[in-house]
């Protein structure tokens, strides 16, 4: 998405500067048509898939009891809405995801700063980080439930467990790849370690942070859904598990679709944030 | 009058698991006020290490460095350091980049701000002050880097291969440009380079270091017969080639 916009901007910029020659006009036209073509095909695939799904289910080629179908998904959604629980489930899941996401990013960054600050601490903790990074964090689920109790807190901790170590390693790695000469520059002015951190490390790591955010958006959703599978009484993950257990595939499909939309919106939110910040920086 | 920089019996040994490396040995020379001194030597002879020692960023394992008679115990506001690349921060505007050193030294006052603006105006960068570094050419960026150093009002400038990241044409122009600014601002300068022509063209004296362990092999007084000397006009003089030959022989390069 962002790449397309960038291209469009630079194209119109050049057109303004040079005045439009027929060849250039032709080129711009081809680019625009190419983009429209891609969009049309995308839409076509989407509509065809939905239509096929609906038709096959209606014609009993597939069993709608197992596969559900678009019309039933819409009905389920409407029923959840009428019952007044639709936004409650979405809200709970989104809230857990956002809290886990923000906590994971902030704590991860703080820990990374600590590890950068003390080389000794970094060396000592390295094997622990390696083990924690390799361990499938989902295995810790039961531990969290016992320790924290079945509820949103356990789910947030699950989310944190999944995204934290990755953030720490990503940000620390970003710090360590920063040009040593830039740090030397600050030191030539008599800069302290804290000034190296605030004047060079943090601002220079800006692309790393955005990257970590993007990774964490995905991971926090994994954490939330796993958490809800294990303990919850509400949320989209709960609806999916519950729907599976009572064989209401309509409910499962509906929840999965809502989940897909919610996760995409949050990811695009980060992309939008990145664009806003980039605009302010350059 | 006391020399501005006095390097006295300086030696440097690096320790590693594979053993000990003697980078510098028994270095002695001094720089007078307002003088431009170049240090040339083969790669790896410890030229940059020597500058880092003079600046107080690292400490020599033997000997002492004096700045205006005072022993160097750490980084000093008397010294301005210019690195190989401009290292302008691309998240800061030109003006904010120029202010970096003052911010670090917690010396942002109305008068230093005014001085920064004055320097930017004098050296033709005022209209770019709100632009970002990636909108400037390599030569202009180097000029900004110099102003970033000058604004902290150092007495001595240490230039560590400060031009070697530029392409040859730009480099000749920037040599002239920076030389002109250093002379106008009346600074003492110490330039480290591996480029013999560059070292002669800018310097009043050239210090030749031997290969590792680096030690002073010879010091050449550069006397060029040329009015209104600039690095570029220096290169056109008769004597230039003579100095080049002599230093080249002294460098004793083998492949």
The gyration radius over C-alpha positions of chain B equals 18 Å
What kind of assembly state do the chains in view correspond to?
heterodimer
Q: What shape does the CA trace of chain B take?
A: globular
* CATH topology name of the domain at 5-78 and 154-251 in chain B: Rossmann fold
CATH class of the domain at 5-78 and 154-251 in chain B: Alpha Beta
Unreliable stretches covering 5 or more consecutive residues of chain B: none
Which class do the helix and strand fractions of chain B yield? alpha/beta
Helix content of chain A: over 70%
* Largest sheet geometry of chain B: 6 strands, mixed
Largest interface: A-B, 19 and 25 residues
The end-to-end distance of chain B, rounded to whole angstroms, is: 43 Å
> What radius of gyration of chain A results from the CA coordinates?
24 Å
* CATH-derived architecture of the domain at 5-78 and 154-251 in chain B: 3-Layer(aba) Sandwich
Order of helices and strands of chain B: EEEHEEEHHHHEHEHEEHH
Could you tell me how far the N terminus lies from the C terminus of chain A, measured between alpha carbons in angstroms?
Answer: 20 Å
Q: Compute the average pLDDT of chain B.
A: 86
Number of structural domains of chain A: 2
Name given to the CATH architecture of the largest domain in chain A: Orthogonal Bundle
Beta strand count of chain A? 0
Determine the number of helices of chain B (DSSP H or I, runs of at least 4 residues).
9
Share of helical residues of chain B: 25-40%
């Amino acid at each position: 998405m962002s790449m397309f916009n960038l291209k469009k901007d630079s194209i119109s910029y050049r057109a303004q500067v040079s005045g439009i020659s027929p060849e250039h006009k032709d080129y711009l036209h081809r680019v625009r048509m190419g983009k429209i073509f891609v969009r049309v095909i995308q839409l076509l695939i989407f509509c065809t898939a939905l239509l096929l799904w609906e038709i096959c289910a209606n014609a009993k080629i597939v069993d709608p009891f197992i596969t559900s179908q678009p019309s039933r998904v819409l009905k389920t959604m409407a029923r959840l809405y009428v019952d007044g629980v639709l936004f409650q489930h979405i809200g709970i899941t989104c809230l857990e995801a956002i809290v886990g996401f923000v906590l994971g990013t902030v704590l991860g960054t703080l820990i990374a700063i600590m590890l950068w600050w003390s080389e000794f601490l970094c060396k000592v903790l390295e094997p622990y980080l390696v083990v924690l990074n390799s361990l499938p964090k989902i295995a810790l689920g039961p531990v969290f439930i016992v320790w924290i109790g079945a509820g949103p807190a356990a789910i947030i901790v699950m989310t944190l467990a999944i995204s934290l170590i990755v953030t720490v390693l990503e940000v620390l790695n970003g710090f360590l790849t920063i040009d040593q000469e830039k740090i030397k520059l600050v030191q030539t002015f008599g800069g302290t370690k804290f000034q190296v951190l605030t004047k060079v490390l943090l601002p220079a790591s800006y692309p790393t942070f955005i990257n970590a955010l993007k990774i964490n958006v995905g991971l926090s959703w994994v954490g939330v859904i796993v958490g809800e599978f294990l303990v919850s009484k509400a949320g989209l993950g709960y609806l999916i598990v519950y729907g599976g257990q009572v064989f209401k595939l309509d409910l499962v499909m509906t929840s999965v679709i809502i989940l897909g939309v919610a996760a995409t919106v949050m990811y695009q939110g980060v992309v939008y944030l990145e664009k806003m910040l980039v605009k302010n920086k350059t | 009058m006391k020399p501005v920089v006095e390097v006295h019996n300086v030696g440097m040994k690096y320790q590693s698991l594979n053993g000990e490396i003697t980078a510098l040995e028994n270095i002695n020379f001094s720089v007078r006020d307002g003088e431009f001194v170049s240090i040339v030597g083969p790669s790896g002879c410890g030229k940059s290490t020597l500058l880092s020692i003079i600046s107080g960023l690292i400490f020599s394992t033997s000997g002492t460095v004096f700045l205006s008679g005072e022993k160097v115990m750490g980084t000093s506001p008397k010294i301005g350091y210019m690195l190989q690349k401009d290292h302008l921060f691309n998240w800061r505007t030109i003006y904010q980049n120029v202010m970096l050193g003052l911010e670090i030294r917690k010396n942002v006052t109305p008068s230093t701000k005014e001085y920064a603006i004055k320097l930017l105006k004098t050296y033709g960068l005022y209209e770019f002050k709100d632009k970002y570094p990636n909108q400037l050419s390599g030569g202009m960026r180097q000029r900004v880097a110099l102003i970033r150093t000058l604004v902290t009002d150092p007495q001595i400038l240490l230039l560590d291969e400060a031009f070697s990241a530029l392409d040859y044409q730009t480099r000749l122009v920037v040599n002239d440009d920076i030389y002109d600014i250093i002379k106008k601002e009346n600074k003492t300068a110490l330039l480290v380079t591996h480029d013999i022509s560059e070292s002669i063209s800018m310097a009043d004296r050239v210090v030749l270091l031997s290969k590792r362990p680096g030690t002073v092999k010879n010091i050449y007084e550069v006397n060029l017969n040329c009015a209104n000397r600039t690095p570029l006009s220096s290169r056109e003089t008769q004597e230039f080639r003579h100095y080049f030959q002599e230093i080249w022989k002294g460098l004793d390069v083998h492949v």
